[in-house]
Predict the structure.
Amino acid sequence: MKITHARLRQWVDECAALCQPDTIHWCDGSEQEYRWLVQEMLDSGALVPLSQEIHPGCYLHRSHPNDVARVENRTFICSRREEDAGPTNNWMAPDEAKSLLTALFSGCMQGRMMYVVPYLMGPADSPFARVGIEITDSAYVAASMRVMTRMGDIALRQLGEAGSFVPGLHSVGELDPERRYICHFPEERLIWSYGSGYGGNALLGKKTFALRIASAIARDEGWMAEHMLILELSDPAGEKTYFAAAFPSACGKTNLAMLVSPLEEQGYTVRTVGDDIAWMHIGDDGRLWAVNPEAGFFGVVPGTSRQTNPNAMATMQANTIFTNVAVSDDGIPWWEGKDEPPPTPLTDWKGRRPWSGEEPAAHPNSRFTAPAAQCPSISSHWEDVQGVPISGIIFGGRRAHVMPLVVEAFDWRHGVFLGATMASETTAAATGASGVLRRDPMAMLPFCGYHMGDYFSYWLKMGKRLTNPPCLFHVNWFRKDEDGRYLWPGFGENVRALIWMRERIAGRGQATPTPIGLVPAPDALLLEGLDLAPDALRELLTVDAAEWRTEANDIERHFARFGDHLPQALADELTSLRVRLATAK
Ligand code: OXD
Ligand code: MN
């Protein structure tokens, strides 16, 4: 396709002059091109074929062992003023970042091919879709972008001669962790990423554009870019309720989005609209309408099985790029938690055969990259150009104690407080220690492109603009009893919490007020057919005032980080919580 966009041509020329690639390839997004990219990688050893009989179109990529996750300590928001990046982002002055990275990019593509990847975030022809252009020297990135986005000519057509786009320059560089920088320039709407080939750092449509840059664009334009799955719940009357849900990385977003309802016979089904990101706009009806900007899933594999997530298993049966899983001699991928014993001999994610069994065979953050359209539970509305109307927003985290199974906020402002104080025990999706409690407001802490305190204010402002706002909830599937056993079965059974939320939204479900919000009244949860341990439900819904007084102190410390950017309304919510706790038993 002829490139008629002058600014785009100019930017690509500038990048080529800087990086000095041997050749430049403009990606058209065709099937044929994808096959060529795959072949190139098979030839170079960047991909290993899996059994084409059992997993047609599936390949394994082994990343460099030092490059297996997002690197939050090397991720920077390069706003002009440090204050605008806020206390929870790393900041670098734009000029400093530019000169540092210009030196790194200089000549970095010598001997390599430069791929120009035009892509669309959002359904084609949606008024909410946006164009990005990624320049990369990684065939793995170019191929993955074709799965994760609407890539190639489709994006150039939307761009036309003068449309706007978010430029992103990426090079794997030398994969040196000390020379790894993921830089965002929110005012310029620009991304520069150097030194990593890992998805979250290198597939620039996802975290870097659709969250960090888009959150800044959304604030300026009056919409929301959130780290949320989108799901559709149908009830026995056939009525559909859409939820958006924010959980920190690797807390089961993909599982919840693809939930298989054990109550299908009773008429409750769940369908998937998106598993990671929601772009939400206020409709003429005063409701919030959400599109999934992505076209594929980049999901965590360990723990995924036919029991835990049959829809994900079916999705990754074909046309999938696996990253850092283990593999059998006959090309069957394997990971911890797959509901089959490991085949022997097994080659582990680092390519060591046989697997010694001393370390996990698959990296804990190993991933599958697969087209969303292949998901058996994909909603027939997942590409609706106007999006789907959101009636409930769910926040959640992984908490062994303190947090009940499900809580409804008293109102929008209180819901923003629930989101702003969300906490979770950390997982393997980012480098750093696992199992440490960290507050991750709206699951956006690593993904907000500006000051988190201002982001809270923006949420409050959006609430005022929504004449028909969604109800806000908080869930915790991970509460444990005194012996450390999970109290709630989770997975498909989570539909029962969704059904209660749906009933609340419809003004029917019964709730009991507690100091922290509304929990299901006794008998309000549909528990038919569920084998819960005696007392488990009571424990799951318990709000322990003493524990919560300690929690309130921790929230106060958390809020203190935001200084005078913390909206007064949230400080007031904390005071109100304490007042309610003071009078509670
Ligand atoms: C992801 C993440 O990869 O949140 O989705 O880390
Ligand atoms: Mn995510």
